[in-house]
Design brief:
There is one protein chain. This protein folds into three domains: 246 residues, Glucose-6-phosphate isomerase like protein, domain 1 (Rossmann fold); 180 residues, Rossmann fold (3-Layer(aba) Sandwich); 35 residues, no CATH class. Helix 1 packs antiparallel against helix 4, helix 12 packs across helix 13 and helix 14 crosses helix 18. The strands form two sheets. A six-stranded mixed β-sheet has the order 1-2-11-10-8-9, with helices on both faces. It is an alpha/beta fold. 45% of the residues are buried. The chain contains 20 helices and eleven strands. Strand 1 and strand 2 form a beta hairpin.
Length: 503
Amino acid sequence: MNAIASAWQNLAQIKGRTLADLFEDQGRVAAYSTRFELPEGAIQFDWSKTHLDAELVAGFEALAAAADFDAMRAKLFAGEVVNPSEGRAAVHPAMRGAGNLAVAEEAEALLARMGMLVEAIHQGALGEVKHLIHVGIGGSALGPALAIDALARDEALVDVHVVSNIDGCALEAAFKACDPATTLLAVASKTFTTIETMTNAASVLAWFERNGVDDPSGRVVALTAAPDKAVEWGVDETRVLPFPESVGGRYSLWSSIGFPVALAVGMDEFEQMLAGALAMDRHFESAEGFANLPLRAAFADLYYTHIRGCQTRACFAYDERLRLLPSYLQQLEMESNGKSVTAEGKPVTGPTAPITWGGVGTDAQHAVFQLLHQGTNLVPVDFIASIAPGDTLEPAHHRILLMNCFAQGAALMAGRASEDGARTYPGDRPSATMLCEDFDPATLGALIAFHEHRTFANAVLMEINPFDQFGVELGKEIAKQIEAGGARFDASTEALLEAAGLG
């Protein structure tokens, strides 16, 4: 038995304690809750309502040592290969200024180039610009959509519409909201060949032409790791914003994929978001063991998936500005760690990523919390909230919001006994809370970077590669076969193709 298998065996033999028992320790909250300082403000990471205790923490620290976590983390920040199946580094920390110096300097230069274009657009170099249609898919859309929805609610410098779906209804909705004479198009594609993105981009150009826009290609900005292909497609090189090939799609918000964010809220706020992420990078790179917040979260994640058999993990943002965070985390976590083989290509010996899902409080309380409190599934829950409100209405709104957030965590933990089974709450159900002092660009950056590093830490301890995503390729290949014609499929698929007129 190797050291990793032995560490898992030792963890499985630890007798878990109830939350009520754990909270008999008066120092519990202080030990399992940490204030993370940002350039301005802070985030309180409270993992005290999870079932982690000293014995489990020691067991997981032993697992981290067996998995050589420190060495893998060092490889990530050094810009060495951490994606063995594709022979690539993962340089998203360097996009924020952390890690490999050469890559960080290149990122700084690319960021300066993006800033100059953003400033030129704001100053009218491309004429009056009121709207941007940003077409991308996956990480090229989810990250920008999250950041813009979170940060540009009050007063956007440019009205941005993120379109990812190939369903024409999505693009038509953007057309209805935009004036073609004052609209730019951003095409976000790592390879500049993604069929959904390039089809949507061509349709935007056709919309420009139908509406009498002079030189439609002059209204296009390309965000890509294949700048030559963008130029071949017709984008002037002055409006091509490259990013490194080793920046994965779901980690690309920090690169030129963040262009629509900077255009909407300004380069200063985008750089503040980078600064918040950098602060989390510095912490993750240097903090050891349980003191390392993303690693601590991974300990809890793996306890629930591997020891307690939980198949899902929920995230509920008690802040309307973070309503898109659960969707963002779904891709980050499930595309990264939804694997069935190790980094060496061998079958895994246990579960990998849980299904990530969630919603917005208090809406979710009246929709799905019934299952969390009384259902037969044990679901670890993350709550995220801000002490400072994002609105200017009567304080009662925010007070009620926060009271509900804290009440849910307390109720999940405490439960309530009753002679009426329908009114019995079993309790002893875990949650973690991320409480922000305020919600600003730096806070958003730190939260996203926290989850990136949490995902990486989980992967290292499970011995899997979080940076490839071959699972998304097979469906694409079959779609191309259907488009080309001549291929035969199962009887059900053939019948569906015939019914849809695609046979």
